[in-house]
Protein backbone atom coordinates (compact mmCIF):
# COMPACT_ATOMS: atom_id res chain seq x y z
CA UNK A 1 0.00 0.00 0.00
CA UNK A 2 1.39 3.38 -1.00
CA UNK A 3 0.84 6.57 0.89
CA UNK A 4 1.17 10.19 -0.08
CA UNK A 5 4.18 11.97 1.37
CA UNK A 6 3.32 14.20 4.31
CA UNK A 7 2.54 17.83 3.55
CA UNK A 8 5.17 20.23 4.81
CA UNK A 9 4.09 22.94 7.23
CA UNK A 10 5.17 25.58 4.70
CA UNK A 11 3.12 23.88 1.94
CA UNK A 12 0.06 23.76 4.18
CA UNK A 13 0.49 27.45 4.95
CA UNK A 14 0.76 28.26 1.24
CA UNK A 15 -2.44 26.32 0.50
CA UNK A 16 -4.26 28.22 3.25
CA UNK A 17 -3.09 31.56 1.87
CA UNK A 18 -4.08 30.65 -1.70
CA UNK A 19 -7.53 29.39 -0.73
CA UNK A 20 -8.34 32.53 1.28
CA UNK A 21 -6.96 35.00 -1.28
CA UNK A 22 -9.25 37.70 -2.64
CA UNK A 23 -7.48 37.39 -5.98
CA UNK A 24 -8.08 34.51 -8.43
CA UNK A 25 -5.09 32.21 -7.73
CA UNK A 26 -4.13 28.63 -8.58
CA UNK A 27 -1.44 26.62 -6.78
CA UNK A 28 -0.10 24.05 -9.30
CA UNK A 29 2.27 21.13 -9.33
CA UNK A 30 5.00 20.84 -11.96
CA UNK A 31 2.71 18.68 -14.14
CA UNK A 32 0.03 21.39 -13.88
CA UNK A 33 -2.27 19.62 -11.48
CA UNK A 34 -4.22 21.88 -9.13
CA UNK A 35 -3.12 21.66 -5.52
CA UNK A 36 -5.35 24.51 -4.36
CA UNK A 37 -7.52 27.25 -5.82
CA UNK A 38 -8.71 30.46 -4.23
CA UNK A 39 -12.40 30.90 -3.59
CA UNK A 40 -12.30 34.01 -5.75
CA UNK A 41 -11.04 31.93 -8.70
CA UNK A 42 -13.91 29.47 -8.29
CA UNK A 43 -16.47 32.28 -8.10
CA UNK A 44 -15.03 34.26 -11.02
CA UNK A 45 -15.04 31.29 -13.39
CA UNK A 46 -18.01 29.42 -11.94
CA UNK A 47 -16.19 26.23 -10.99
CA UNK A 48 -17.21 23.99 -8.09
CA UNK A 49 -14.34 24.13 -5.53
CA UNK A 50 -14.86 20.47 -4.64
CA UNK A 51 -14.00 19.39 -8.20
CA UNK A 52 -10.70 21.24 -8.44
CA UNK A 53 -7.98 19.61 -6.24
CA UNK A 54 -5.93 17.00 -8.08
CA UNK A 55 -7.30 17.81 -11.52
CA UNK A 56 -5.15 19.08 -14.35
CA UNK A 57 -5.53 22.73 -15.30
CA UNK A 58 -6.68 21.65 -18.77
CA UNK A 59 -9.59 19.69 -17.24
CA UNK A 60 -11.09 22.52 -15.20
CA UNK A 61 -14.62 23.65 -15.98
CA UNK A 62 -15.76 22.39 -19.35
CA UNK A 63 -12.23 22.15 -20.71
CA UNK A 64 -11.92 25.85 -21.52
CA UNK A 65 -8.61 26.02 -19.65
CA UNK A 66 -7.01 23.58 -22.10
CA UNK A 67 -4.94 26.24 -23.80
CA UNK A 68 -1.79 24.88 -25.50
CA UNK A 69 0.04 28.20 -25.37
CA UNK A 70 -0.65 28.63 -21.65
CA UNK A 71 0.41 25.05 -20.96
CA UNK A 72 3.70 25.61 -22.82
CA UNK A 73 4.41 28.81 -20.93
CA UNK A 74 3.73 27.12 -17.59
CA UNK A 75 6.04 24.26 -18.52
CA UNK A 76 8.81 26.75 -19.40
CA UNK A 77 8.20 28.59 -16.13
CA UNK A 78 8.44 25.37 -14.11
CA UNK A 79 11.76 24.49 -15.78
CA UNK A 80 13.15 27.95 -15.03
CA UNK A 81 13.52 28.86 -18.72
CA UNK A 82 10.94 31.66 -18.60
CA UNK A 83 8.21 33.18 -16.51
CA UNK A 84 4.78 34.52 -17.39
CA UNK A 85 4.46 38.28 -17.01
CA UNK A 86 1.12 39.88 -17.89
CA UNK A 87 0.39 37.42 -20.68
CA UNK A 88 -3.01 38.14 -22.22
CA UNK A 89 -5.28 35.37 -23.40
CA UNK A 90 -8.96 34.90 -24.19
CA UNK A 91 -11.03 32.44 -22.17
CA UNK A 92 -13.58 30.91 -24.54
CA UNK A 93 -16.64 29.11 -23.17
CA UNK A 94 -19.64 27.80 -25.15
CA UNK A 95 -22.62 30.17 -25.30
CA UNK A 96 -20.79 32.82 -23.26
CA UNK A 97 -18.93 35.96 -24.28
CA UNK A 98 -15.15 35.68 -24.37
CA UNK A 99 -13.27 37.01 -21.37
CA UNK A 100 -9.92 38.74 -21.66
CA UNK A 101 -7.51 37.47 -19.01
CA UNK A 102 -4.08 38.63 -17.86
CA UNK A 103 -1.93 35.75 -16.60
CA UNK A 104 1.08 35.94 -14.29
CA UNK A 105 2.95 32.85 -13.06
CA UNK A 106 5.97 32.20 -10.82
CA UNK A 107 7.67 29.20 -9.30
CA UNK A 108 7.02 29.09 -5.58
CA UNK A 109 9.13 27.67 -2.78
CA UNK A 110 6.69 26.00 -0.40
CA UNK A 111 9.35 24.34 1.75
CA UNK A 112 9.70 21.16 -0.28
CA UNK A 113 12.99 21.55 -2.17
CA UNK A 114 12.48 18.42 -4.24
CA UNK A 115 9.32 19.63 -5.92
CA UNK A 116 8.47 22.52 -8.22
CA UNK A 117 5.35 24.45 -7.45
CA UNK A 118 3.70 27.16 -9.55
CA UNK A 119 1.57 30.08 -8.43
CA UNK A 120 -0.77 31.25 -11.18
CA UNK A 121 -2.57 34.61 -10.85
CA UNK A 122 -5.49 35.40 -13.17
CA UNK A 123 -6.97 38.87 -13.68
CA UNK A 124 -10.11 39.40 -15.74
CA UNK A 125 -9.62 42.71 -17.59
CA UNK A 126 -12.57 42.36 -19.98
CA UNK A 127 -14.68 45.12 -18.43
CA UNK A 128 -11.69 47.40 -17.89
CA UNK A 129 -10.65 47.09 -21.55
CA UNK A 130 -14.23 47.72 -22.68
CA UNK A 131 -14.35 50.89 -20.56
CA UNK A 132 -11.01 52.02 -22.00
CA UNK A 133 -12.26 51.47 -25.54
CA UNK A 134 -15.44 53.39 -24.75
CA UNK A 135 -13.40 56.25 -23.32
CA UNK A 136 -11.17 56.30 -26.41
CA UNK A 137 -14.24 56.32 -28.63
CA UNK A 138 -15.75 59.21 -26.66
CA UNK A 139 -12.52 61.21 -26.86
CA UNK A 140 -12.28 60.58 -30.60
CA UNK A 141 -15.94 61.51 -31.13
CA UNK A 142 -15.47 64.68 -29.08
CA UNK A 143 -12.44 65.65 -31.14
CA UNK A 144 -14.36 65.09 -34.38
CA UNK A 145 -17.31 67.09 -33.05
CA UNK A 146 -15.06 69.96 -31.95
CA UNK A 147 -13.40 70.11 -35.36
CA UNK A 148 -16.80 70.10 -37.05
CA UNK A 149 -18.02 72.91 -34.79
CA UNK A 150 -14.87 74.94 -35.47
CA UNK A 151 -15.27 74.38 -39.19
CA UNK A 152 -18.88 75.53 -39.12
CA UNK A 153 -18.01 78.59 -37.02
CA UNK A 154 -15.24 79.54 -39.45
CA UNK A 155 -17.63 79.21 -42.39
CA UNK A 156 -20.28 81.28 -40.60
CA UNK A 157 -17.75 84.03 -39.89
CA UNK A 158 -16.76 84.08 -43.55
CA UNK A 159 -20.42 84.57 -44.50
CA UNK A 160 -20.83 87.38 -41.96
CA UNK A 161 -17.68 89.07 -43.30
CA UNK A 162 -19.02 88.89 -46.85
CA UNK A 163 -22.32 90.45 -45.78
CA UNK A 164 -20.49 93.27 -44.01
CA UNK A 165 -18.36 93.97 -47.09
CA UNK A 166 -21.41 94.03 -49.37
CA UNK A 167 -23.12 96.43 -46.99
CA UNK A 168 -20.04 98.68 -46.95
CA UNK A 169 -20.15 98.94 -50.73
CA UNK A 170 -23.82 99.95 -50.76
CA UNK A 171 -23.90 102.64 -48.06
CA UNK A 172 -23.45 106.28 -49.03
CA UNK A 173 -21.98 107.57 -45.77
CA UNK A 174 -18.17 107.45 -45.63
CA UNK A 175 -18.33 107.17 -41.84
CA UNK A 176 -20.73 104.23 -41.97
CA UNK A 177 -18.61 102.60 -44.68
CA UNK A 178 -15.53 102.92 -42.48
CA UNK A 179 -17.29 101.31 -39.52
CA UNK A 180 -18.51 98.43 -41.67
CA UNK A 181 -15.06 97.91 -43.14
CA UNK A 182 -13.51 97.86 -39.66
CA UNK A 183 -16.14 95.34 -38.57
CA UNK A 184 -15.32 93.26 -41.67
CA UNK A 185 -11.61 93.21 -40.82
CA UNK A 186 -12.36 92.28 -37.20
CA UNK A 187 -14.57 89.36 -38.25
CA UNK A 188 -11.97 88.27 -40.79
CA UNK A 189 -9.29 88.18 -38.11
CA UNK A 190 -11.41 85.88 -35.94
CA UNK A 191 -12.37 83.80 -38.99
CA UNK A 192 -8.73 83.34 -39.90
CA UNK A 193 -7.95 81.98 -36.43
CA UNK A 194 -10.96 79.68 -36.50
CA UNK A 195 -10.01 78.39 -39.94
CA UNK A 196 -6.61 77.25 -38.72
CA UNK A 197 -8.00 75.65 -35.56
CA UNK A 198 -10.64 73.77 -37.55
CA UNK A 199 -7.88 72.00 -39.50
CA UNK A 200 -5.60 71.28 -36.54
CA UNK A 201 -5.65 68.10 -34.46
CA UNK A 202 -6.31 67.87 -30.76
CA UNK A 203 -3.21 68.60 -28.69
CA UNK A 204 -0.32 71.00 -29.15
CA UNK A 205 -0.45 73.50 -32.02
CA UNK A 206 2.75 73.96 -34.06
CA UNK A 207 3.13 77.70 -34.40
CA UNK A 208 5.23 77.76 -37.58
CA UNK A 209 2.51 76.09 -39.65
CA UNK A 210 -0.24 77.89 -37.76
CA UNK A 211 1.16 81.41 -38.28
CA UNK A 212 2.10 80.69 -41.89
CA UNK A 213 -1.39 79.54 -42.82
CA UNK A 214 -2.91 82.35 -40.79
CA UNK A 215 -0.93 85.01 -42.65
CA UNK A 216 -1.64 83.37 -46.00
CA UNK A 217 -5.36 83.69 -45.23
CA UNK A 218 -4.99 87.33 -44.20
CA UNK A 219 -2.94 88.14 -47.28
CA UNK A 220 -5.44 86.46 -49.59
CA UNK A 221 -8.33 88.46 -48.14
CA UNK A 222 -6.64 91.87 -47.69
CA UNK A 223 -3.73 92.20 -50.15
CA UNK A 224 -4.92 93.05 -53.65
CA UNK A 225 -1.42 93.17 -55.16
CA UNK A 226 0.96 90.50 -53.85
CA UNK A 227 3.86 92.17 -55.69
CA UNK A 228 3.33 95.34 -53.66
CA UNK A 229 2.79 93.94 -50.16
CA UNK A 230 4.05 90.69 -48.62
CA UNK A 231 3.97 88.92 -45.26
CA UNK A 232 6.89 86.78 -44.02
CA UNK A 233 6.80 84.36 -41.08
CA UNK A 234 9.82 83.21 -39.06
CA UNK A 235 9.01 80.82 -36.20
CA UNK A 236 11.07 78.22 -34.34
CA UNK A 237 9.84 74.71 -33.50
CA UNK A 238 7.53 75.93 -30.74
CA UNK A 239 4.23 74.18 -30.05
CA UNK A 240 1.66 75.51 -27.58
CA UNK A 241 -1.70 74.57 -26.10
CA UNK A 242 -4.77 75.41 -28.23
CA UNK A 243 -5.98 78.19 -25.90
CA UNK A 244 -2.58 79.90 -26.07
CA UNK A 245 -2.52 79.54 -29.86
CA UNK A 246 -5.90 81.31 -30.08
CA UNK A 247 -4.60 84.34 -28.18
CA UNK A 248 -1.35 84.44 -30.16
CA UNK A 249 -3.25 84.06 -33.42
CA UNK A 250 -5.60 86.93 -32.60
CA UNK A 251 -2.66 89.14 -31.64
CA UNK A 252 -0.92 88.40 -34.94
CA UNK A 253 -4.06 89.04 -37.00
CA UNK A 254 -4.80 92.33 -35.24
CA UNK A 255 -1.25 93.60 -35.71
CA UNK A 256 -1.04 92.44 -39.34
CA UNK A 257 -4.40 94.02 -40.17
CA UNK A 258 -3.29 97.27 -38.50
CA UNK A 259 -0.05 97.31 -40.53
CA UNK A 260 -1.87 96.57 -43.79
CA UNK A 261 -4.34 99.41 -43.13
CA UNK A 262 -1.96 102.12 -41.94
CA UNK A 263 1.73 101.37 -42.61
CA UNK A 264 1.85 101.66 -46.41
CA UNK A 265 -0.40 104.50 -47.61
CA UNK A 266 1.88 105.72 -50.39
CA UNK A 267 4.63 103.13 -50.68
CA UNK A 268 5.08 101.13 -53.86
CA UNK A 269 6.32 98.11 -51.87
CA UNK A 270 6.02 96.95 -48.30
CA UNK A 271 6.77 93.97 -46.10
CA UNK A 272 5.41 92.70 -42.80
CA UNK A 273 7.45 90.23 -40.75
CA UNK A 274 6.22 87.98 -37.95
CA UNK A 275 8.86 86.45 -35.69
CA UNK A 276 8.38 84.06 -32.75
CA UNK A 277 11.05 82.56 -30.50
CA UNK A 278 10.84 80.56 -27.26
CA UNK A 279 13.27 79.02 -24.77
CA UNK A 280 12.88 77.63 -21.23
CA UNK A 281 9.35 78.96 -20.81
CA UNK A 282 10.19 82.42 -22.16
CA UNK A 283 8.86 83.56 -25.52
CA UNK A 284 8.90 86.64 -27.74
CA UNK A 285 6.49 87.54 -30.52
CA UNK A 286 7.17 90.51 -32.78
CA UNK A 287 5.33 91.96 -35.75
CA UNK A 288 7.36 94.44 -37.81
CA UNK A 289 6.78 96.45 -40.97
CA UNK A 290 8.96 98.72 -43.12
CA UNK A 291 6.23 101.30 -43.60
CA UNK A 292 5.90 104.95 -42.63
CA UNK A 293 6.74 104.32 -38.99
CA UNK A 294 5.12 105.65 -35.85
CA UNK A 295 3.18 108.91 -36.22
CA UNK A 296 3.92 111.49 -33.53
CA UNK A 297 2.26 114.56 -32.11
CA UNK A 298 -1.10 115.48 -33.59
CA UNK A 299 -0.71 112.77 -36.24
CA UNK A 300 -0.65 110.02 -33.64
CA UNK A 301 -3.96 108.14 -33.81
CA UNK A 302 -6.02 107.43 -30.74
CA UNK A 303 -5.94 103.90 -29.41
CA UNK A 304 -8.66 101.92 -31.16
CA UNK A 305 -10.43 98.64 -30.67
CA UNK A 306 -7.54 96.67 -32.15
CA UNK A 307 -5.09 98.12 -29.64
CA UNK A 308 -7.41 97.26 -26.78
CA UNK A 309 -7.77 93.70 -28.05
CA UNK A 310 -3.99 93.20 -28.32
CA UNK A 311 -3.40 94.66 -24.85
CA UNK A 312 -6.08 92.43 -23.30
CA UNK A 313 -4.72 89.30 -25.00
CA UNK A 314 -1.16 90.12 -23.97
CA UNK A 315 -2.24 90.54 -20.35
CA UNK A 316 -4.04 87.22 -20.54
CA UNK A 317 -0.78 85.61 -21.69
CA UNK A 318 1.16 87.43 -18.94
CA UNK A 319 3.12 89.30 -21.58
CA UNK A 320 4.41 92.85 -21.85
CA UNK A 321 4.02 95.03 -24.96
CA UNK A 322 6.72 97.24 -26.45
CA UNK A 323 6.20 99.46 -29.49
CA UNK A 324 9.37 100.76 -31.17
CA UNK A 325 10.58 102.53 -34.29
CA UNK A 326 12.09 100.00 -36.72
CA UNK A 327 13.73 102.62 -38.97
CA UNK A 328 11.95 102.35 -41.33
CA UNK A 329 8.65 101.17 -40.05
CA UNK A 330 7.50 100.04 -36.64
CA UNK A 331 7.74 96.94 -34.46
CA UNK A 332 5.35 95.66 -31.84
CA UNK A 333 6.90 93.12 -29.47
CA UNK A 334 5.13 90.98 -26.87
CA UNK A 335 7.44 89.30 -24.35
CA UNK A 336 6.61 86.64 -21.81
CA UNK A 337 9.04 85.64 -19.06
CA UNK A 338 8.56 82.44 -17.06
CA UNK A 339 10.07 84.17 -14.03
CA UNK A 340 7.13 86.56 -14.06
CA UNK A 341 4.74 83.62 -13.72
CA UNK A 342 6.78 82.27 -10.80
CA UNK A 343 6.77 85.68 -9.09
CA UNK A 344 3.00 85.94 -9.59
CA UNK A 345 2.46 82.67 -7.69
CA UNK A 346 4.61 83.66 -4.69
CA UNK A 347 2.65 84.61 -1.54
CA UNK A 348 2.64 88.30 -0.67
CA UNK A 349 5.09 89.39 2.04
CA UNK A 350 3.49 90.04 5.40
From TrEMBL:
Entry keyword set: ATP-binding, Kinase, Nucleotide-binding, Phosphoprotein, Transferase
Organism: Ancylobacter radicis
Keyword Cell cycle: no
A Pfam family assignment: HisKA_2
Domain Histidine kinase/HSP90-like ATPase residues, every copy: 243-340
Residues spanning the membrane: none
PANTHER family, per the entry: ETHYLENE RESPONSE SENSOR PROTEIN, TWO-COMPONENT SYSTEM SENSOR PROTEIN
Reaction catalyzed: ATP + protein L-histidine = ADP + protein N-phospho-L-histidine
Family annotation (SMART domains): HATPase_c (SM00387)
EC number(s) given by UniProt: 2.7.13.3
Keyword flag DNA-binding: no
Name of the protein in question: histidine kinase
